[in-house]
Amino acid sequence: MPTNSLLQNKICVLIPTYNNHKTLKRVLDGVLEYTQNVIVVNDGSTDTTSEILLEYSHITKVHFSENKGKGKALQAGFKKALALGYDYAITIDSDGQHYPQDLPFFFNEIEKATSPVLLIGSRNMAHDSVPKKSSFGNKFSNFWFKFETGIELTDTQSGYRAYPLHFIPKRFFTSKFEFEIEVIVRTAWNNVAVKNIPIQVLYDPAERVSHFRPFRDFTRISILNTVLVFLLFVYIKPRDFFRSFKKKSFKRFIKEDVLSVNDSPLKKALSVALGTFIGLSPFWGFHTALTITLAVFFKLNKVLAFTFSNVSIPPMIPIIIFGSIWTGSEIYPSTVAFSFQNISFKAIENNLVQYLIGSFTLAFIFSIILGFVSYVLFTWVKNKTPNT
User: Fold this and answer.
1) Angle CA 98–101–105, to nearest 5
2) 102, 13 in Cβ contact below 8 A?
3) Listed residue (375, 339, 373, 345) closest to 359, CA to CA
4) Are the C-beta atoms of 31 and 107 separated by less than 8 Å?
5) Coil, strand or helix at 118
6) In 3D, which of 177, 205, 209 has the Cα closest to residue 46?
7) What is the pTM of this model?
């Protein structure tokens, strides 16, 4: 049981179920030994699930007329839990693989937490009863979760979880099994701690009914991870960078990120070169996202790269466009006349080939020049700075 009434009143147990009539009653009876705060989402079951649930008049039930997928069932359960005033929902699968006896572990961790936390039960995947495909799928999921969040977990696929309802995303992209990956990644992106706690697991082939469709669901999971990785580099990394940048004073920024002794002169010079190259390149509207993404990928100084990518600020744009078209015309002559007074994006359209050639040429030349100059400068500063 939860250790006090306040804790008991803010936590519910959420059980999504679909055609698990063989094990549902056992799971429900086990959960009710620990709490009466139970929500069951019947995801369009076609077996005797509805009849079984009639025996439990005191629990909250949500019924779907047709099967919508585990993700939709969980989302409906979260919505109902919030409406009933709960802060946490502990989800447990209805196929009998999870032990209700492990609920106190979740209660205790929630009680100890000083900030919102998303808990995931960690199964012993080396147990003889665990199917090999489940073990492989879990390792696959763990790898991508770490790549997308930087958090290393031993189990990311267990359905035995505790969700901080007020701190998970409000809208989701997915509705099937892949939802359980999306929700933990995006919650971690909201700076909510995601942790494993050890649990027991039972795989009984005589009772357990799995609705996981290997090819179709693995494909959906792969597509989701592709989208999440794209969002990571295009939105999450730049967002986190700007948040960090805003917290620093200009003096601290110069000291820690420009003259930082933690990065070598070569690394900082390469960061300057990268920012300069992207800033002068023709990728208008994507300079920041490209710069931060490549700086993260190549493990360069993100602040320096971002700073020098802003060479293409509005006052410089006409000069950059003119210089690009002029340089490109010297390499590949144009039949369309242009002048500095008439520089605009229309001029780019009329001299597109010349602009692209000249833009990349100038980007390459100036990135080399500024990279070299900055290397000399950073080396000089490092030699002048006394060792501490």
Assistant:
1) 95
2) no
3) 345
4) no
5) strand
6) 209
7) 0.68
